[in-house]
Amino acid sequence: MFFRAITHYINKNDYAVMLGSLAPAGTLQAAMEELGTPSFNLNASRTTQYPLAVIRLVRLLRRHRVALLHAHGFYPVCIGLMAARLARVPFVFTRHHSDHNIRLGKRWHVMIDSWCARLADRVMAVSEATRQIMMETEHVPPKQIAVVYNGVEPVADPDALAVERLRRNLDIGDIPICLMIGRLHEEKGHHFLFKALPEVLSRVGPVAVLLAGVGPHRHALEAEVRDRCLEQVVRFLGWRDDINELIGLSSVVVLPSLAESFGQVLTEAMSLGKPVVASTTGGIPEVVADGETGLLVPQGTSRELADAICQVLQNPDYARQLGQAGRKRSALFSYQRMVQGYEAVYRVVLA
Predict the structure, then answer these.
(1) In sequence order, what are the residues at sequence separation of 6 or more whose Cβ sits closer than 8 angstroms to the Cβ of residue 6?
(2) In angstroms, rounded to a whole number, what is the distance separating the alpha carbons of residues 245 and 195?
(3) pTM of the model
């Protein structure tokens, strides 16, 4: 959807787009073929093939007389920067993570992040919080960084019958539902949600907690649910392609992350008029207006998280008010605005 949006909203009078991947041809190339958009792949499926990928990209940039290269992701940025410099092509990239590598103590990743940002012509940070981290921790000059918020395609309201069918399939009665969508990784803060649940259950009564997503820490999280005797409350749904229906089914969408550059799932939930409860980490406060479009709590605080969830679940009118305001605010984070932000950076670099 992300790259489809770029091809859809880019000003075709000013820019001809070619999209590609570091990995061998796959779903991206198939999607671009459907749209009639040129694509390429560097056929590098492992790190030992990356030097050859640089050479291939240099040749491609020269052959097609590419005016500017825009990369996304850690390895594509590293390879793209080297190839662009060898081919003497302007280079920009989008920085999608905030302090992830810093938190995990990945010193080499942080050093490489900083090196790439300082050598690029411009970097687009997906939030002001990410920009601040880049300046303060990675010592990237402020003039190098522009904030361009991620975009989200307007989420279609789910069919009411489909939502009720999902409720039956999940065998959930008429009780409040807390939904958390995200990778099963410690940085998403599942632990703090689990720790908050006894307080929520004591004040609200029966609640179902649905976790949609996959990740490396699933077994550890399942073990924690068992240790806390929450097996009848928390359900691991795995990868889902019915996110619209899940959001429609939920009473509140929760994201107690420890690190979050933007918080895209929150914009999706807000676009469907659902109240959200999230942490104040990273770019989340730029997405959610606390007390207006959702409730924010300090990261890593279970008691405050429980209070916020209870406030939403125990006050339906307030929850509805938050959801309505969130739906309006979500319109600020559209793919169209994102692509316009990209184009503004392109114009500066190519001037």
Answers:
(1) 17, 19, 335, 339, 342
(2) 27
(3) 0.89
